[in-house]
């Protein structure tokens, strides 16, 4: 069984930085796309950024230039470096993995439990 375990959330002042990590546990052959979504109170979950196994990245307009996503394929881990944080970045951040290959079947999509990021003004 594969699980996604996030870490790195917390409380930070506006303008500060945080780094989120998400590691996929279990016997994994490959993961096509890994990414981060977030959900603020009263809002829908939205994509923050994702990255393919080949390194192609995709960012929400609201975080471009401030957040950087990266991954270590050997460790099945994805990172999100968040700089110049704003109060509107406050949300629960969820790790996501798509097309997880694990013998004998794999998973089309997996979610982590989420980690809370709070940015104070």
Structure described in brief:
The protein has 121 residues and is mainly beta. It is built from no helices and eleven strands. The model has no long low-confidence stretch (mean pLDDT 96).
Low-confidence segments, given as residue ranges, are: none
* Strand residue content: over 45%
Strand segment tally: 11
What are the secondary-structure elements, in order, as H or E?
A: EEEEEEEEEEE
Shape: elongated
Q: Would you tell me the structural class of the helices and strands?
A: mainly beta
> What would the average pLDDT be, to the nearest integer?
96
Helix content: under 10%
State the distance separating the first and last CA atoms: 40 Å
Largest sheet: 7 strands, mixed
User: What is the CA-atom radius of gyration, in angstroms?
Assistant: 14 Å
Tally of contiguous helical segments: 0
Provide an overview of this structure.
- The structure is a single chain.
- By secondary structure, the protein is mainly beta.
- It is 0% helix and 59% strand.
- The chain is built from no helices and eleven strands.
- The protein has strands at 3-7, 10-13, 18-25, 30-39, 46-52, 57-59, 67-72, 77-82, 91-101, 107-111, 115-120.
- The strands form two sheets. Strands 2, 4, 5, 6, 9, 10 and 11 form a seven-stranded mixed β-sheet that branches. A four-stranded antiparallel β-sheet has the order 1-3-8-7, with no helix packed on it.
- Strand 9 and strand 10 form a beta hairpin.
Topology readout:
Layout: E1 3-7, E2 10-13, E3 18-25, E4 30-39, E5 46-52, E6 57-59, E7 67-72, E8 77-82, E9 91-101, E10 107-111, E11 115-120
Parallel strand pairs: 2-11
Antiparallel strand pairs: 1-3, 3-8, 4-5, 4-9, 5-6, 7-8, 9-10, 9-11
């Amino acid at each position: 069984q594969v699980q996604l375990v996030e870490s790195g959330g917390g409380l930070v002042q506006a303008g500060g930085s945080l780094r989120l990590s998400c590691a996929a546990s279990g016997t994994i052959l490959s993961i096509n796309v890994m990414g981060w979504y977030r959900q603020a109170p009263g809002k829908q979950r939205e994509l923050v950024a994702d990255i393919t196994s080949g390194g192609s990245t995709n960012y929400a307009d609201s975080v471009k230039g401030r957040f950087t996503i990266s991954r270590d394929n050997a460790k099945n881990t994805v990172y999100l470096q968040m700089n110049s944080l704003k109060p509107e970045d406050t949300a629960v951040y969820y790790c996501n993995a798509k097309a997880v290959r694990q013998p004998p079947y794999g998973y089309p999509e997996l979610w982590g439990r989420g980690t809370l990021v709070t940015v104070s003004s």
